[in-house]
Design goal:
The chain has 776 residues and is an alpha/beta fold. Among the domains are: 4-53, no CATH class; 208-379, no CATH class; 385-535 and 572-578, no CATH class. The radius of gyration is 30 Å and the shape is globular.
Length: 776
C-alpha cells in the first residue's frame, strides 16, 4: 500500500490551484493553511490504513487479537503479544492435526519458544509377547513407530544392552531407548515421569542456547612422549576464552514450519551435549550433529576452523580425516584410556575442553596459532552479556546527536586507541567492538588519562557509548579499575553519560588487585550498564568446585567466598577538597539494566536504578545472615554510613543482604535481609523478603520468608538464577503482572505454563493425560 501520509495535502492539489500559492500578495498562504489540517488528515489516513491491517493477525493492533480469536472460537490466553499472535495464527492448522504428536509439539513451541519433545509413554512400556504374535520391533517405521533417532535397534521387551555407553547414556532422558514397567503412581511436581498407558510426556528445554561467534582459540601445545599410533603431540584448547569451565550445549534446529511436521530430534535439542554421543566409533554415537571442523556454515553446537593447508588436509576429499571421542579431560591427555591417537579430537562437554592429537610439533603449533572456535552455551534468558543482536545505537544520546560509530578493530586498532578520543569535545562518541575476542584495557595507556583518586582516570570531554556490535560478545579484561570523570568541571558536563552495553567485563587476575572493584569512580551525570556482565566472581574452577579464594574465616565458621565489588562509588565522587569538588553539582545515577553484576558499594551522593538484573554477593537463601555478603550497601561500616544510595528497582534478584537509605519498586527477590534506613517512605510490591532481620518500608502483595530455591547459584552454570519448580507458588507466579519475581520475571514463564495447560485441555484426546517435564 502507498503511504499517503507522506505525500501531504498541498502536493495532492490539482495543478490549477497551485499558482495561487505563489502570488506576491500572499505567498505560500494556501500551503500554510493546508498545513494546519495536515495532522488531522494524517490521523484519519493512518486510521483507514490500520482498519485494513486489523484484518490480519500478523499486523493488527494488539487489542484486535482477542476478537480475531473469537472468530475462530479460541479461548483467550495472556502473555506477550507475539505469543498471542502465533497462537491465533496457527489455530486452524493445529486443529486439522489435533491428536497428533506433531500438533502438540508445534502448539507447545508456539506458546513458549522452548525446545520440546512429546512422547507417548505407552510406547516405553514393556510387555510379554504372545508366542504366536511376537513383536521384536519398535512398532514399525515412523510415523507409526517411535522415531529411530540414528540409534541401533532396541527390541521391545528385550533386555538393555550394556556394551554401548552412548546408548546407555540415553536412559532416563526424553529419548529413552529401552522399555520400562508401568508406574501407576500419580504424577507430582518433583517426579512427574510416570510410564503408563494414558500418559503423554512433554519434555521442555527452557534454557536459551547462545552461540558465540568464531574467535581465536585459547590453546597450548604439548609433547605427549607417545609413539606408534598414539599422538606424539597434543593441542589443549579451552573453549572459554578465560579458561573457565563451560557446559557445552547443542543448538536448537527444530523447524515448526516444516511440512509435513517433523517432531523434535535427539541431536537437535537446545540442551547439554551428551558426552557419549560424541564417540564416532560407537554405534549410538553421532558426533556430526554436535561438532564441525570443516566450515562456518553448519549449525551444530561446537565448530572448529583448523588450518587445513598446514595440516595437509583437503576438507573436500578427506571427509573422515578426524575421529571424535567424548571423554573427561580434567587431566587432559594423561587421563585418557585409551590414549590419544593421531588425528583424533576429544571433547569434554562438561568442562568445555577440546584435545587434538597430531604427529608433529609443526602441526600442533599451526593448530594452536591459527585456529578459530565457536561454541554454544546455555543461560536462562537475556540477562547479562550474551551473543545476541542489540538495538541500534540511539539517534540521540545525552541530549545530543552522536557521530558515526568507531569500529574496533577497524577504525581503531585497539579499545585503548578508541577511548583516547573520549577526551575530545563534540558529539557523543560511540565505540562498537566487532568481534568476540578478549580486549585488554589499561587506562594508563589511554591518551588523555590522568592519575587521580588512586589510579588512572578516563578524562571525558563528551558522552561515550562502548557496545558490542552484531551478535558478538566481546570480553574486556581490565588491568586496573575503570574510573570516569569530566575533563573539566563546569556547566558543560550537565548531561555527561557513559553507557556500557553488551560487554563481559572482568579483571586480569595476574595484576588486578583482588579487593578492587571493576568500576571505582563515576563522576558523571549517569553511568549506564546495559546487557552487560560485570564478573561477580564465584565461578567454577576446573575441578567443578566453586572458586577457592576465600576470605579467612573465623575459627568454627563456614568460609565465605570473596566476591569483590563490581562498582564502588564514594561520596564526593572522588574529588579531593577544593574547587572541583565544590563545582561538581551533579547527583550521578547508576543504572543497571538486564545485567549480571557483583556487589554494589554506592554512597548517598548517588542514586541507583536496577532493572531485570542479578546482583550477586554469593549468599543464597540457605546461608547464615551473620556471614552473608553485601549485594548493595554504602562504603562505611557505621550505623549511618553502611546504608547505600536511594534505590529504585524492577525485577531484581539480590544474592546477598541489602542496606540502603530508601527504596521503591517491585518484583525483587532478597535471599538475605533488606534493611532500609528511611522506611517511612517508598513502597515495595510483589516481592520476596528474607524471613528475619529485615527493616522494611511499606510493602504490598509480597512474601516474607517464602520457600526459595534456584536451579543454580553459581555464576556461569546454565541454570544460574533460574527459579526451581519447588519454589513457593507466590514467588513463581505472583510477581509483577502475575508472573515470577526476580530478574527473569519478564520472560513470562508462569504465563507459558498456564497457557500450555489451557491449550492442552482443548487438544488432548480423551483419556490422555499430559505430563509437563522440564529438562532444563
Amino acid at each position: 500500500m502507498v503511504d499517503r501520509s507522506r505525500i501531504g495535502l498541498y502536493r495532492r492539489l490539482p495543478e490549477v490551484y497551485k499558482p495561487r500559492n505563489d502570488e506576491d500578495t500572499a505567498p505560500r498562504q494556501l500551503e500554510a493553511y493546508l498545513g494546519i489540517l495536515e495532522k488531522v488528515f494524517d490521523e484519519i489516513d493512518d486510521n483507514i490504513d490500520q482498519l485494513y491491517h486489523d484484518l490480519f493477525i500478523e499486523h493488527c493492533d494488539p487489542w484486535v487479537i482477542a476478537y480475531i480469536g473469537d472468530l475462530l472460537g479460541t479461548s483467550h490466553l495472556s502473555g506477550d503479544e507475539l505469543t498471542l499472535r502465533r497462537d491465533v495464527a496457527s489455530t486452524i492448522a493445529l486443529r486439522r492435526r489435533k491428536g497428533t504428536i506433531g500438533a502438540i509439539e508445534t502448539l507447545t513451541y508456539n506458546l513458549t519458544r522452548w525446545g520440546v519433545h512429546a512422547v507417548e509413554l505407552r510406547e516405553w512400556m514393556s510387555w510379554n509377547h504372545h508366542l504366536n504374535h511376537q513383536r521384536p520391533d519398535r512398532g514399525g517405521d515412523p510415523p507409526y513407530g517411535r522415531q529411530a533417532a540414528a540409534l541401533p535397534p532396541s527390541p521391545r521387551g528385550g533386555t538393555a544392552t550394556l556394551r554401548d555407553p552412548a546408548l546407555i547414556s540415553l536412559s532416563g532422558t526424553p529419548f529413552e531407548p529401552f522399555s520400562r514397567t508401568a508406574d501407576v503412581r500419580p504424577p507430582t511436581s518433583a517426579d512427574s515421569l510416570r510410564v503408563n498407558l494414558p500418559n503423554l510426556a512433554v519434555f521442555l528445554w527452557r534454557l536459551e542456547a547462545y552461540t558465540v561467534p568464531f574467535a581465536t582459540v585459547n590453546a597450548e601445545s604439548v609433547a605427549t612422549g607417545a609413539g606408534g599410533d598414539d599422538a606424539e603431540h597434543a593441542v589443549r584448547i579451552y573453549v572459554d576464552p578465560l579458561s573457565r569451565p563451560v557446559r557445552l550445549f547443542n543448538t536448537f534446529r527444530y523447524d515448526p514450519e516444516a511440512r509435513p511436521l517433523v517432531v523434535a530430534e535427539l541431536d537437535a535439542t537446545p540442551g547439554p551435549i551428551p558426552t557419549a554421543r560424541l564417540n564416532s566409533k560407537s554405534d549410538a554415537g553421532n558426533p556430526d550433529e554436535y561438532i564441525e571442523v570443516l566450515g562456518r556454515d553448519s549449525e551444530v553446537g561446537l565448530r572448529l576452523l583448523l588450518p587445513n593447508n598446514e595440516l595437509g588436509v583437503d576438507p573436500d576429499v578427506n571427509l573422515d580425516h578426524w575421529s571424535f571421542r567424548g571423554a573427561d579431560l580434567c587431566a587432559w591427555e594423561d587421563g585418557l584410556n585409551p590414549k590419544l591417537r593421531d588425528d583424533e579430537i576429544v571433547i569434554d562437554p562438561v568442562l568445555g575442553r577440546v584435545l587434538i592429537g597430531v604427529d608433529t610439533a609443526a602441526k600442533a603449533e599451526a593448530i594452536r596459532d591459527s585456529s578459530e572456535l565457536s561454541y554454544t552455551y546455555g543461560a536462562v534468558g537475556n540477562v547479562g552479556a550474551h551473543p545476541e543482536t542489540l538495538p541500534d545505537p540511539p539517534a540521540t544520546f545525552a541530549g545530543q546527536t552522536p557521530g558515526p560509530s568507531l569500529q574496533v578493530p577497524g577504525d581503531a586498532a585497539s579499545l585503548e586507541a578508541a577511548l583516547g578520543q573520549a577526551n575530545l569535545s563534540g558529539s557523543p562518541l560511540i565505540i562498537e567492538i566487532t568481534d568476540s575476542e578478549i580486549h585488554d584495557l589499561d587506562l594508563a595507556l589511554v591518551s588523555g588519562s590522568v592519575t587521580e583518586d588512586g589510579g588512572p582516570n578516563l578524562m571525558l570531554g563528551r558522552s561515550v557509548i562502548v557496545r558490542a556490535a552484531g551478535d558478538h560478545r566481546p570480553i574486556i579484561r581490565l588491568q586496573q579499575p575503570l574510573r570516569f570523570r569530566p575533563k573539566t568541571v563546569d556547566s558543560g558536563i550537565s548531561r555527561l553519560t557513559v553507557r556500557l552495553e553488551g560487554l563481559f567485563i572482568t579483571r586480569d587476575e595476574t595484576g588486578f588487585p583482588a579487593s578492587q572493584p571493576l568500576i571505582a569512580r563515576a563522576a558523571l551525570h549517569a553511568l549506564e550498564i546495559r546487557h552487560c556482565t560485570l564478573d561477580p566472581g564465584g565461578h567454577l574452577l576446573d575441578d567443578l568446585e566453586s572458586r577457592s579464594d576465600f576470605v579467612e574465616p573465623v575459627p568454627g565458621d563456614r568460609p565465605v567466598p570473596d566476591f569483590p565489588p563490581s562498582v564502588r562509588a564514594a561520596d564526593h565522587h572522588g574529588f579531593p577538597p577544593g574547587a572541583e569538588r565544590d563545582s561538581f553539582d551533579q547527583s550521578p545515577i547508576i543504572r543497571v539494566d538486564y545485567s549480571i553484576v557483583g556487589p554494589l558499594l554506592v554512597d548517598n551522593d548517588y542514586s541507583v536504578s536496577i532493572n531485570r538484573s542479578v546482583v550477586d554477593a554469593g549468599s543464597g537463601p540457605d546461608d547464615d545472615p551473620a556471614t552473608a555478603g553485601a549485594a548493595l550497601k554504602g562504603l562505611g561500616a557505621g550505623p549511618s554510613t553502611k546504608y547505600g544510595a536511594q534505590t529504585s528497582l524492577d525485577g531484581v534478584t539480590f544474592l546477598g543482604r541489602v542496606q540502603v537509605r530508601a527504596i521503591n519498586g517491585q518484583g525483587g527477590i532478597w535471599t538475605q535481609p533488606l534493611e532500609v534506613e528511611n522506611n517511612q517512605t517508598g513502597c515495595i510490591r510483589f516481592s520476596r523478603f528474607a524471613a528475619t532481620g529485615n527493616r522494611l518500608p511499606q510493602h504490598y502483595a509480597s512474601s516474607i520468608g517464602g520457600h526459595l530455591r534456584f536451579t543454580s547459584e553459581v555464576f556461569g552454570e546454565p541454570g544460574y538464577g533460574q527459579l526451581s519448580l519447588d519454589t513457593s507458588f507466590t514467588i513463581r507466579e505472583r510477581g509483577p503482572g502475575d508472573d515470577a519475581m526476580g530478574a527473569f520475571g519478564h520472560l513470562l514463564e508462569a504465563h507459558n505454563w498456564r497457557n500450555l495447560q489451557i491449550r492442552y485441555r482443548e487438544f488432548m484426546p480423551v483419556g490422555v493425560r499430559p505430563l509437563l517435564i522440564p529438562v532444563t
